[in-house]
């Protein structure tokens, strides 16, 4: 079995959605934390 | 066919064409949710004002009482991971993830009810015990699946998932604060409603992960990957049964190494704000200290991915050698940074330490895979997590009580942590020795044939069924 999204398997859209589902909230949280962390250098 | 047959392992076997890159987001769905545990402290202050609203009333709960909610949760995490590890491994990731989602959400709902009737024991039971089981089962549920999908890069794969546990607080903390602000009124704090909404959100998020996850079909391997035919010095090609692994010295050496690594990190995580302000009075303000804590959280999360991925190239044993040596150097340096009043050096030391704290968690599943094979790695990992529970006691005790002792005996606050730092450095020496003693597992522990596997399962299964079921 190949590690790809050929055949009728995983599509690029499914992959994008799955990663966005976890990536977006995580990125927002990291940005918020980074903004707070900058107070150390002020 | 039962109602829940869709949770069976057999229903999660990937069809041809399924991309293994769908599995890390599935694992992250779980770990980002249960990582909320690290942000539970945002509820502490509001929960001390449930009766008094603007300030604590005599009937209100106090901070030490509330501190037990998190402690029980982490303690139950370790022991539920150990008890349910084999059940998780044999039942497959979807059943485990679904159970974890149920426990985690129901834990929040029970805790909300406890807040509503103002009974702390109900909150302990809900978030601590029921939610703690969700933490334990959820934490180990995707580990072995990821290792099976990424035999070529097991460190990176588990690092990605366990990074989510470190990152969960980044989402939970602002979300909790925002929800409480929406539900609070002049006569109401809004904690119970926040618990209910968070339980519902987490349930949906985790269920999505449970439905995405797949296990590879038997014999599957990544394109272009050739599994090693022979075991290398520290990477076995055989499997060790979970209860046989517990009889090996290797398991206990790794247990000690992990315990030391976690002890060193967990003690400073809780005290980072106070410690930085006391060691640098006037230089680090309360606001700057909060920024320092945020920066530590980021390094905790990033270290999980960085160190676990690095371990795929330099090896697991060498990665832990780096942790022990660097940790020793950093802890010996911290008192010096205080004496020369260098905030930058102090911050750098702790950021390195905390990245290795996260890295230790994320690298250890792959270390277990190298030692004991893939078959029961999730269950063995479950038992190893008890090291975390123990470290959760050792770490804060070492930092808090020694500081308290020093302060009451006249040591200036700026130097009150020095002894603790040297003790931590000493612990890393013990960790280094334990890591050096880790050799390949004796062949007599290896499973040889499928009939061996079945026999071992039947023998232990008969005894362990009530606990594991």
Walk me through this protein's architecture.
Chain A is an all-alpha fold and 42 residues long. Helix content of chain A is 62%, strand content 0%. Chain A contains 1 helix and no strands. Chain A is rod-shaped, with a radius of gyration of 17 Å. The N and C termini of chain A lie far apart (54 Å). The N terminus of chain A is likely disordered. Chain B is mainly alpha-helical and 469 residues long. Chain B folds into 2 domains: 201 residues, Growth Hormone, Chain: A (Up-down Bundle), CATH 1.20.1250.20; 240 residues, Up-down Bundle (Growth Hormone, Chain: A), CATH 1.20.1250. Helix content of chain B is 72%, strand content 0%. Chain B is built from 17 helices and no strands. In chain B, helix 3 runs antiparallel to helix 4, helix 7 runs antiparallel to helix 8 and helix 11 runs parallel beside helix 13. The radius of gyration of chain B is 22 Å and the shape is globular.
